[in-house]
Write a structure and sequence with these properties.
alpha+beta; single chain; Neurolysin, domain 3; 693 residues; 4 domains; two-stranded antiparallel sheet; 57% helix; 9 strands; globular
Length: 693
């Protein structure tokens, strides 16, 4: 790590001593000292980190010696250590336990950090040195990982405007600053809209169809929000989705659904309609500045998919059988409505309710029948056991560790021989300070220093159904899959074994990063694995074979809906990011035109509507939401490799670990996959899995 000496006054020295970011972490395993970090520490820490990083970069740019891999590329890789450390903690806490102070600082920092990145990638002297090393790459004798670091470094400059003229660089700086501010606002608006809505019910008679557990959770929420003696349902998935699935009261289902689908489109201070159009148009402007016809062309240049045509083909190939199946499901739902003596046309807020009734009739399978077997503790242990059988990993819960919220748990992850692999934080329950969804992130990424592997610190954050009273948290089958999914991401981060931090763990293309996560879902659903972890929370008995048989029989039930609502969002994302001229209509008009062109039926809306589509307008999935289905082709094919041998075949597991999980971004994804599988993935496995063949 390059260090920069600086002179400080007595007051500055006190500030540095008191600020936990500005001294070495004196904590077990070097985890962040969450017990000492306060909101007021972030701004001065960022200011010092930016100052240090700027000084380090200037030093590299002004070296008098000829450019080499060591004094330029490696020096840049090692620069900015403090900025990385502060950013990892701030970004994680801003997502999982934010407050007004952090939100204000996030808004203030976004354009400053964008400008800082531009100061680096648009530095002519620095790029000259990077380009000089790139131009002589064939004669440097670099190994494959060094070559990849060099390629990533060079392309980072080029793809961020290093070759532009001065006027275009100034325009790019302005665009980047606007995008940083707008994408931050978008995410904050979605969280505010999600928290603002409450469906308050004051009569238990209106809650017909709901389980006692769901009603108890709603009563707890009501008490917490000052509505004693009532029931409150929120827009958290663990509240809204089971309500839509089971509530008999159609009017209440409609009200909750309207609140859910109108997030960010309510004409208030949190409305995202204009913001998202501006984001899409600015991304087009940036892509054009950099020489690309669309934002999607820019993004996909570095993805497995390579270009928009390949993505469009995949989405189109899947859409046709999926929409046909969804239409058949819609017909069944309408017939069920009529059979119940009703004469209304099915609406989106009817789908889950009547689909559940059909599922129970056809397969005698109810989510409430399943939930007692999926306590959070048993599902989490099931994921740990799979990792142990596949890779020999051991998980030990640690007490007394610094944590950022009382609900957080911490685990030490080690090899079978006791060698430390990493530290794993888990944060599973919803709260108003946490953004919706589920994700994996890092507080420290893996890298190698002086020949020693530096262990990563990884976190999984989710929004699962919280425990009520003395009953444990009971997950839906979908939530169990989500736990395994995010745990797969965690394994990708934990098992990384590379030299350079910028290439470690999940530092891969978006359409490859979902492979390690999605492949884990296959173990979550496998009958043999289910018997090992799905245990009744009261009796400890394993899930009965008869119930597993029902799950298998219902395996592809509802896949028309599930595939179509996902593909609709992927198509919507792609339509926003393949525009070749600025959008001049409203977000609502654009979305409607996109879905009409695709042929989406009225009974289904996209999984993520435009105004709350965090993945693409606030996260890192712009022109990349297709990645989940692209990676599902990979994961279905990868799991087939295990099924051809056995679920825990050591040779197959070792190959997956060595060629996928450990390698990070040190090689091209397609090459890594071929090394694991011996061939390109076969889409037939995905089509069969979804019942679309």
């Amino acid at each position: 790590m390059i260090s920069t000496a600086f002179i400080v006054s007595c007051d500055d020295t006190k500030q540095i001593t008191d600020n936990p970011f500005l001294t070495a972490y004196d904590t077990p395993f070097g985890v962040p000292p969450f017990d000492k970090i306060k909101d007021e520490h972030f701004k001065p820490a960022y200011e010092e980190a930016l100052r240090q990083h700027s000084a380090e970069v200037d030093s590299i740019a002004n070296i008098t010696e000829a450019p080499t891999f060591e004094n330029t590329i490696l020096a840049l890789e090692h620069a900015g250590g403090l900025l990385t450390r502060v950013s990892y903690v701030f970004s994680n806490l801003s997502s999982s336990t934010t407050n007004d102070v952090l939100k204000a600082l996030d808004t203030e920092l976004a354009p400053k950090l964008a400008a800082h990145r531009d100061d680096i990638t648009l530095n002519d002297k620095l790029f000259g040195r990077v380009k000089a090393v790139w131009d002589q790459r064939d004669s440097l004798g670099l190994d494959s990982e060094q070559l990849m670091l060099l390629e990533r470094s060079y392309k980072n400059f080029v793809r961020n405007g290093a070759n532009l003229n001065d006027a275009d660089k100034a325009t790019l700086r302005d665009v980047n600053a606007q995008l940083a501010e707008l994408t931050t606002q978008f995410g904050q608006h979605v969280l505010a809209e999600t928290n603002a809505f409450e469906l308050v019910v004051d009569s238990e008679e209106a809650l017909g169809g709901l389980s006692d557990g769901l009603k108890a959770a709603a009563a707890n929420t009501a008490s917490a929000k000052g509505h004693d003696g009532k029931w409150v349902f929120t827009l958290s998935n663990s509240s809204v989705m089971p309500f839509l699935q089971y509530a008999d009261n159609r009017e209440l289902r409609r009200q909750l659904w309207e609140g859910y689908k109108n997030r960010g489109a309510n004409g208030n201070e949190n409305d995202n309609s204009d913001i998202l159009v501006e984001i899409a148009n600015l991304r087009l402007q940036k892509a054009n500045l950099l020489g690309y016809p669309t934002h999607a062309h820019y993004v996909l240049e570095e993805a497995m998919a390579e270009n928009p045509d390949n993505v469009r083909k995949l989405l189109g190939d899947l859409w046709k059988p999926a929409i046909a199946k969804a239409k058949a499901e819609a017909y069944d739902i309408q017939k069920e409505i009529e059979a119940s003596g009703q004469d209304f046309q099915a609406a989106p807020y009817d789908w889950r309710y009547y689909s559940e009734k059909i599922r129970q009739q056809r397969f005698s399978l109810s989510e409430e029948e399943l939930k007692p077997y999926f306590s959070l503790a048993s599902v989490r242990q099931g994921a740990f056991d799979v990792a142990n059988k596949l890779y020999g990993l051991q998980f030990k819960q640690l007490e007394g560790m610094p944590i950022y919220h009382p609900e957080v748990e911490v685990y030490e992850v080690s090899e079978a021989d006791g060698t430390l692999v990493g530290i794993f934080y888990v944060d599973y329950f919803p709260r108003e300070s946490k953004r919706p969804g589920a994700w994996m992130s890092s507080f420290r990424r893996q890298y190698t220093e002086n020949g020693e592997r530096m262990a990563p610190v990884i976190v999984n954050v989710c929004n699962f159904t919280a425990p009520v009273g003395d009953q444990p948290a009971l997950l839906t089958f979908d939530e169990a899959n989500t736990l395994f999914h995010e745990f797969g991401h965690a394994l990708h981060g934990l098992l990384s074994n590379v030299t350079y931090q910028s290439l470690s763990g999940t530092s891969v293309s978006r359409d490859f990063v979902e492979l390690p996560s999605q492949v884990m879902e296959n173990w979550a659903e496998d009958p043999t694995v289910l018997k090992s972890y799905a245990k009744h929370h009261e009796t400890g008995e394993a899930i009965p074979d008869a119930l597993i048989a029902k799950l298998e029989s219902a395996g592809t039930f509802g896949q028309g809906f599930a595939t179509v609502e996902y593909l609709a969002s992927a198509i919507l994302d792609f339509d926003y990011h393949t525009i070749t001229s600025p959008i001049t209509v409203s977000a609502a008009e654009f979305e409607k035109a996109s879905m009409d062109k695709a042929g989406l039926i009225d009974e289904i809306i996209p999984r993520h509507r435009s105004t709350y589509f965090n993945h693409i307008f606030s996260g890192g999935y712009s022109a990349g939401y297709y990645s989940y289905i692209w990676a599902e082709v990979l994961d279905a094919d990868a799991f087939a490799a295990f099924k051809e041998t056995s679920l825990y075949d050591k040779a197959t597991a070792d190959a997956f670990r060595h060629n996928i999980l450990e390698k990070g971004g040190t090689e091209k994804p397609a090459e890594l996959y071929r090394k694991f599988r011996g061939a390109d993935p076969d889409p037939v496995h995905l089509m069969r899995k979804r019942g679309l063949d």
